[in-house]
Amino acid sequence: MTTRYYYKDAYQTTFEARVTGCCETEKGYEILLDGTAFYPEGGGQPCDLGVLKAADKTVVNVTDVQEGGEVVRHFCDGPLEVGTKVQGEIDWHRRLTHMREHSGEHIISGIICKTHGYSNIGFHMGKEFVTIDFSGLLTEEQIREAERKANEKVMENVEILAQYPDAEALAVLDYRSKKELSGDIRIVTIPGADCCACCGTHVKRSGEIGPIKVIGSEHYKNGIRLNILIGEKALADYTQKSENTQKISGLLSVKPEHTADAVDKLLESVNALKLEYGALKMQLLEQKVDAVVAGEKSVVLFEKGLSPVDVRKLADKLQEKAEFSAVFCGDDSEGYKYVIISKSMDMAAFGKDFNRSLNGRGGGRNPMIQGSVTAARCEIEAYLDESLQEV
Ligand SMILES: [Zn+2]
Description:
It is a single chain. This protein is of the alpha+beta class. The protein is built from 9 helices and 20 strands. It has 4 domains: 3-90, Elongation Factor Tu (Ef-tu), domain 3; 96-239, Threonyl-trna Synthetase, Chain A, domain 2 (Threonyl-tRNA Synthetase, Chain A, domain 2, 2-Layer Sandwich), CATH 3.30.980; 254-289; 292-390, Diaminopimelate Epimerase, Chain A, domain 1 (Roll). The chain is 36% helix and 32% strand. It starts with a strand and ends with a helix. The model has no long low-confidence stretch (mean pLDDT 94). Bound molecules: zinc ion. Zinc ion is lined by residues 43, 102, 106, 196, 198, 200. The site of zinc ion has 6 residues, from helix 2.
């Protein structure tokens, strides 16, 4: 049986223990100790990592810790002799992050349960953020309200208690629990916010949690999933977002609190310019068409910067004036997009030969083909000169 030091003191980072078992497994060496401060993965909280140091200076890394009923299973990258005394050292930064996140999760879950009657149906401490799933939906306003109350509870700096009430006390206690529990039940209480059966590690006072910020939400299993930053991660996010807003504020010459409105206005003017630009482009295309003398045998135009739709529009207008009309858009290095229209030729056959000769692709049906070629303008012109003479 392993004594779990983290229940007596969640702030204990080093400990001494004796190795009571060691065997090789697929996940490395599984080491059992008579006591440990390493928290095994459970209750939504990831396991601790760290090292075990033996008296003979052997050091093994603890790469995973799992619950094993009466024992805690430490998976390590090397073996330790049974009977040896070791000193264990947990990665405190990782553990403290988990403690802050776990306590923060209880506050948010307790508040939402109390306010809306929703259960916490899932909890995950991810690398980037914590996710909590609730059994019902919340509006943006309700999320902000829960977030505000949670941060208030943090700032109140209340004591967080972990106790094992007796059966009598437990029977009248109103606490959250994911499953039917038996035996000694550990109840974690955050006065005024939450009371919940929990096997995890928590900070001593709510003030240690730091800021709690909901950064996203999505529908999940008839309810809602909240993505939440707690502690250092919330602070880092605030710094990054603040820097971003400062930059946008500088670029748009508006106060940081007015950046969203300013971007709105900017997009409005971009859209107005797009419309104006489109109208001017159409005028230009029409002028090009007007310059062509009606009744020409063939008209071939080389253009730049036209959209595929404009290329087609231009070719469409030209075919009213000429027997054979072609519009190419691009340049020698990038290649050309094309639309070719002929009233008298078999365009399917023409297109096949055209593409084959000029390293192109595309096709179509009479009277129009379209596609792209990777050939130089002079090669395209030479090809068209020759094939049009044959007609
Ligand atoms: Zn918990």
